[in-house]
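Hi X.,

You mentioned you wanted examples for the new student's onboarding notes, showing what a folding record looks like when two proteins sit in one file. Here is a clean example. The first protein comes first, with its sequence line followed by its structure tokens.
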Amino acid sequence: MNVSEYDGLTGLKNRKSLQKCFDEYSEANSRFGLILIDVDGLIYFNDFYGHVEGDEKLKQIADLLCQNVPNGVDVFRSAGDEFTILLKDLNIAEVVALVMQICKAVNQTFAHMPPLRRFYGMRDRSRLEVHYPLTVSCGVAFYPEDGTTYEDLYRAIDEILFRAGKPLLGGVVALVRNSESE
């Protein structure tokens, strides 16, 4: 076990390990799905409950993700409040069903918590205050249809989550595109 490839907080494989795995999958010319899971409003959670409690929630979310993926599938902590899963041998419907299951499991786990105050900036520079519990939003993209690098797929997912209302709503599940129906 190479310690430099693991996240110290969650014990999951880290971004370095993710890039290695992504490169292996893409070099094999495999079609695979990439799921990005973003913890909605963790900054507000940390402001209200503190970073120690925020770290505990990240560990709980990591555990929930691992419990909800098929055996043999790695979950990565790819950034401070982001997790990534790479999936081979599943079709689009299976990946989306898994994402919905993950989102639901995490969101239900934290539904009992008091709603957090979050602020959404509007184009005219006004701000809207919204209240909702700790949630995750999940985006899905596929290699090679939606991008051929991790960065391409990440950007595509980030854009679709933003358009789906993640900053305002949280708990969003979004698919970059369904290339089989195009």
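Then the second protein repeats the pattern, sequence line and then tokens:
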Amino acid sequence: MTPITSLDLTGFTEREPGVWTDAAGLVLSVHFFPLIPDLPAPLHEPQRLGAGLAQLVAGAGGGLIEAAPGSVDGVPAVRQLVKMPLGSRPGQAFLGSWTVPRAGSSTVVKVQAAEGATTGMREAVIMAQVGPAEYFLPHPYAGGQPGGLPYHVGDHEQWDARFPDHPLTLVRAALHRITPTITFDDRFKALPPFGGPAAPQSLPHLPPPKRGWFRRRRDA
């Protein structure tokens, strides 16, 4: 159970509590963590937050495509797009998420999808168009390349329309569509804000959830 009270699940089928899939292979999941969030910086320090997240993702072998502070249902949050190697076979998985931190807990909404048998087509086409010298860029948050999967223009949103079936395109579009439909229980919204990892405090956590907190909403 999570403090999410409404979320548009049109097109998704529940596979287990808190996990849904759709026909395109997207996996949507929601999570609640009754712990001080492990974000590397407060949301009002976006450069330090982005740099820390880039290093964390690189350390896991992946690459941070984007980290952007914003809000979900009026609550400050950070949106991330991450790519990770599949490991067992060639290709990458792409994960888009909102982390909504409070002082002593957090809610995460995550959408993910993986490449299928054909991999690297998007990257090859874009590199051929822009040229290798303009393809790989210093990471905008970490400077240079922090390790893990490299940062490059092929992951930028401007190319999504050209590759409508690519998993990154699908993940980004699903996250854009779902975000405005998310609402939270007022008790979660009333919790003290996240102040950053350097100042943990003993603060009240979200009360135990009531059955029925999470319900499906379809837009009219």
